[in-house]
Amino acid sequence: MDFTTLTIEALRTLSNIVGNYGLGIILLTVVIRLAMWPLSVSQQRSMKMMQNLQPKLKAIQDRYKSDPQVMQRKMMEFYKEHKFNPMSGCFPLLLQMPIFILLYTALMSPQFIQVAGNTQFLFIKRLDATLKTTAGISYDGIMGVSKYDNFFLGKTATVYLPKETLENVKIEKPNKALEIQGAVTPGEPIDFKISLDSLDLKFSQLDQIKKTEVVVSNAQNKENEKVQFVRKGGILAASMPTKAVKNSFHFDVLILIVLFGLTMVATQKIMMTTSNTQQQDPTQQALQKSMGIFMPIMIMATFVFIPIPAGVLLYLISSNVIQVVQTVVINKQLESEELKKKQKIDDYVVTTAKKVETKEIK
User: Fold this and answer.
1) Reported pTM
2) Looking at residue 88, what DSSP letter applies?
3) 72: CB partners within 8 A, 6+ apart
4) Which one of 59, 157, 185, 203 has the lowest number of neighbouring Cβ atoms within 10 Å?
């Protein structure tokens, strides 16, 4: 079982718990964020330590700016002295990239489209929809197509033998088992064929097949149609009527992109507020402020041109919201730790002063 299938099975399990694939994606986000909580604490602890060390680092940079090699060596010695790894705060961000790629691949995969692609959640019409896609109506007996569409089979088929019907027969490599005979011309029937060897059956059963029913999906417009294939020699063949489809604009996906941008701005603002509690170089502060504005805009613009499924955007939005909450909670936790340390130091100073005062009186 590959990682894409494992991801879809995990989503299926979570969705069965909460009753909807949209809620399942949010629950998956919560699980991932909770699992990464220790790393998030480490990341913010590292950021705070970096802020505390920033004035001394600036002094080293200013002192050795004419000799970059010496400056680099002194900075490394400084990091080692304070047991600080400047890359430690980047690990949680790097860890999120494979998760994002895996979820993107899963929600764009044929398996998810067939299992839950047309799932609705709140104002989202389809979890697999991108900003601009072709729209098709599933199971209406006519396949909506455009000239360069790709098609694939479902994972199982119903096979009809002379004396029995076999349900849920596994199809080997469903993404590659289906072949198109001739060109795809919208409005004209499209001819499909499947090799008998694509069905996971015994040779004696393959020899008896009369016909089979299997779901054929259009990868471009997310449409599914149940197609009956009839045996013709050593192959199974079918002809499916088609109609032309046009690109449609999904405003619900646009709303998700905007929400993602807003939640990202909120995340950046929380981070900047945390940074501003410490003394910071004005140039660096201005750079952070600019990045907090332009980075969300750049990513939103990227999502307009690169097809991102609504389910992935839902994950990113949920992740940003949880990160805001996490940042606030962890900051309070770290501030509480700092106050306790400060209190211990103050208590120690007071106790020591009292002991000295007592000795002097004696």
Assistant:
1) 0.62
2) G
3) none
4) 203
Can you read off the two tokens belonging to residue 239? 């002809």
CA dihedral 143, 145, 150, 154 (to 10 degrees): -10
Distance from the Cα of residue 280 to its chain's centroid = 33
DSSP category for residue 20: S
The predicted structure's pLDDT at residue 87: 60
Instruction: Count other C-beta atoms under 10 Å from residue 48's C-beta.
Output: 20
Write the DSSP assignment of 29-64 as a string of letters.
HHHHHHHTHHHHHHHHHHHHHHHHHHHHHHHHHHHT
Q: How many CB atoms lie within 10 A of CB 80?
A: 10
Token reading at 344: 């211990």
Identify the domain containing residue 187 by its residue range: 134-246
Are β-strands 143-145 and 242-244 bridged in parallel, bridged antiparallel, or unpaired? parallel
pLDDT at 207: 85
Q: What is the pLDDT of residue 324?
A: 82
Q: What is the pLDDT of residue 212?
A: 92
Q: Provide the token pair at 336.
A: 């509480």
Residues of the chain short of pLDDT 50, as ranges, are 277-279
Supply the pLDDT for residue 229: 92
pLDDT, tens digit (0-9, with 9 covering 90-100), for 46-104: 666 666 666 676 777 777 777 777 777 777 777 776 666 666 556 666 667 777 787 77
The last residue of one of the domains, among 246, 273, 303, is 246
Token pair, residue 351, equals 């106790």
Residue 265, in any domain of the structure? yes
Helix (H), strand (E) at residue 244: strand 242-244
Give me the phi and psi of 101, to 5 degrees please. Answer: -65, -40
Q: What is the pLDDT of residues 197-206, one digit of tens each?
A: 888 888 888 8
- Domain assignment present for residue 240? The answer is yes
Residues in the chain: 362
Answer whether residue 125 is part of any domain. no
Q: What region does 342 belong to: left with phi over 0, alpha with psi -120 to 50, or beta?
A: alpha
Q: Which of 196, 231, 246 is the last residue of a domain?
A: 246
Q: Tokens for 180?
A: 């198109």
The continuous run of DSSP H or E covering 166 comes out as strand 165-170
* pLDDT recorded at residue 129: 75
